[in-house]
Amino acid sequence: MVDTANLPDPDVESAQIGPNGRLRHLITLQGLTRATVTRLLDHAEQFLAPPHQAAVRSDALAGRTVANLFFEPSTRTRASFELAAARLGADVLNLDVKTSSRKKGESILDTIYTLEAMQCDIFVVRDAAVGVPQMIAEAERPGVAVLNAGEAHVNHPTQGLLDALTLRLARPDLENVTLAIVGDLAHSRGARSAYEAFNALGIGAIHFVAPDGMMLDEATYPNAHRFSKLAPGIEEADAIMALRIQHERIDESDALPSLADYHRQFGITEHNLRLCKKTPLVMHPGPMNRGVEIDAATADGPQSLITEQVRNGVAIRMALLAEVDSSARQIHGA
Fold it and tell me: How far apart are the first and last CA of the chain?
């Protein structure tokens, strides 16, 4: 089980809200009110277009510069932030650790100060270390905003919000929905943020389903029901979110089932879905390991919302970019 002593400073939840009551930065979903989360989801819906129609565009960020700083690999999150910024009319700078001076030993704050001098306005940050987005937010000049695009194993707030948007669109009656999150919970920042988003929205029930060594602790996530076996964890589920095994974050000393055993015992497969009393919706934050935590027939089946999650990710990130920029302009007159 991951040591929760590594979780971010709880004071960040107040620091990220500006004096105007709106998001100044987005570091974590911890502590965000139902009203705030609902407003963000409502705003994101305005950026959704039907499939095969032209993407929604805006000039809300015209004249602003968004810097995407991804010091960990990313496909969906980085691409969707880049598209979101461009569709809002911003200039976009993508910085990869392999081509940055941080590789040469420059501190991350010196990198930030360099980009601030080039008049970057919003920093989208992904890093393998705990606390980096908060550290940058605290060091920023007035008017500059920070969005957390994935932080170690502890936070992935935009993922949590897009998961919430996706399920809310499919099931507006969230208060009657049971969501089962199945898999490597202990090492999943996405699972943590999904819990925070759905908990804020008042979802009916959240089930954590995981083998020993992959469960989140009860003290930090008190409103989740815990199951060490798949059948009781998903039998009442209206929706199931499968998680990949985070091999890059797992200690080699952890005793985990083989991939074959894991697939048989916890995989979201057509066979295992027969354990459900209903036909549940299926989600996955990606990237998927088909044949491990989910099978192809389920991932691509009629009950799958996985493609919608990807589509909704751009809308969520558009809403967040617009929110923090608008907040900065209100507070600082930028």
Answer: 45
In this structure, of 1-5, 111-115, 188-192, 205-209, the range with the lowest mean pLDDT score is 1-5
| Residue 173 buriedness (CB in 10 A; 0-12 / 13-18 / 19+) | exposed
What global pTM score does this model have?
A: 0.92
Q: Are strands 91-96 and 65-70 parallel, antiparallel or unpaired?
A: parallel
Secondary structure class of 283 (helix, strand, coil): strand
Tell which residue, 1, 314, 321, has the closest CA to residue 159. 314
* Angle value at C-alpha 185, between 184 and 186, nearest 5 degrees: 95
Looking at residue 330, what is its pLDDT? 83
Residue-wise burial string across 265-304, b where 16 or more C-beta atoms lie within 10 A, e elsewhere: ebbbbeebbeebeeebbbbbbeebbeebbbbeebbeeeeb
What pLDDT was estimated at residue 1? 36
Model confidence pLDDT, tens digit, residues 256-280:
678 999 999 999 999 999 999 999 9
Which helix (H) or strand (E) covers residue 164, if one does? helix 157-170
User: What is the maximal distance between C-alpha atoms in the chain?
Assistant: 58
Work out whether the CA dihedral 42, 46, 50, 52 comes out positive or negative: negative
| Cis omega (within 30 of 0) for bond into 287 | yes
Count of residues making up the chain: 334
Q: Judge contact between 4 and 220, C-beta under 8 A.
A: yes
Q: pLDDT tens-digit profile of 86-112? A: 999 999 999 876 655 566 567 889 999
Which H, E and C letters describe 286-325, residue by residue?
Answer: CCCCECCCECHHHHCCCCECHHHHHHHHHHHHHHHHHHHH
CA distance 29 to 162: 12
Q: Could you report the per-residue pLDDT of 197-250, keeping only the tens digit for each? A: 999 999 999 999 999 889 998 889 999 999 999 999 999 999 999 999 986 655
User: Which run of H or E residues covers position 263?
Assistant: helix 259-266
Bridge-based pairing state of the strands 178-182 and 205-209: parallel
DSSP for 88-154 reads: TT-EEEEEEGGGSGGGGT--HHHHHHHHHHTT--EEEEEESSTTHHHHHHHHPPTT-EEEEEEETTT
